[in-house]
Specification:
alpha+beta, two-stranded antiparallel ribbon, 14 helices, 14 strands
Length: 416
Amino acid sequence: MNVFRMAWRNVWRNHRRSTITIAAMTLALVVELLYSGMVAGMMLGMEDDVTEYELGDVQVFATGYLTRPSLYDAVESPDTIVQTLQDAGYQATPRLYAGGLAGAGDASSGVAFVGIDPTRDAATLSLSDALAEGTWLDDTDPTGVVIGRGLARTLGLELGSEVVVLSQATDGSVASELFTVRGILLSVAASMDRATILMTESIFREMMVFPEGAHRIIVRRPKDVPLSEAKLVVMQAAGVPAVVPDGADPPTLDVMTWRELSPFLAQWLDSAASVVVILYLIIYTTVGILILNAMLMAVFERIREFGVLKAIGYSPFQVLTMMVTEGLIQATIATAAGIALAAPGMFYLQTYGVNVGALGGVQMIGMTMPAVWKGQFSVESSAAPVVMLFVIAILAVLYPALKAARVSPVEAMHHQ
């Protein structure tokens, strides 16, 4: 009789104990599969909240603009950089930024004006799809603007409402305009929700007397390109050297990824991944203790059997292999059952998600909680719980297996 057949027979000699052990492993795997997918979905959603609606993957801006934003510090010839990036398979859009005051009725608030090319921006980012009401910007309606939901509440605005803006143009003149609200955004990025007025590039240039250039170029990378590689491509397109030679003039442009622009968020997302690993360890350690206990009981019940096997020529390694195989059989059955039980839940959570109710729209660390929390399940996210289950199963069974391998025929005959 080969080792596998003996191990299979031994697993089912005590149906109740094996069933309880397999059930515990199955439950742990189901919980971990669903939990890891939901956490992956949350982290991906939060990253998309930043990259899809506000920062993009990589940005180009004038050196020093990030620390002291100024209306006068602009990227020259942004269209050339954008065209170079598009030829390389990247999507890019220039944006114009200024600050000022917005008022409606008796209410007023400090705001940020963002001038965009409606068509190019919609092809690069997903902000045009994040409208709660109304329609996206249109060059045929230059006085139509899109505002954040928070700003709409602050100023008491709704679709069709008029809002007056006031600022200072580049030539020192007063920049003022009367706009009509044509769209209100969903609660996306916190800063955009509370204090942003989106307008067409043409009306921004006219109002702020800003005829050429752009303050930022926002870039989205292809899905299969790593962020670090994307940054190098953007630097090359913008003419920014990776290393500045000694004695050379510093570059006039700077290139940064979203992780460099928002380091706190990046660190938070990285730490969230470690929380998943900690939960793995807690749950699987509990399962490992259960497996250890079950296998130790099996060893004590089968001392005489191990003695007989040793007497007929079984080596310690063969006994150890048989015990480890028993643990692997149980882990394999638990994996098949766990995946089968988790699959419907994974499909539902990825397709429909969970309505978080009042938590939807709540802002934390610059991000907004979506109204529907969806999971993100893939082979990569599901492989870790499965691999960890087998690792824990092997580690838990090693001590009982080593104990069984060291049993001698003489000790087994005197075992009571």
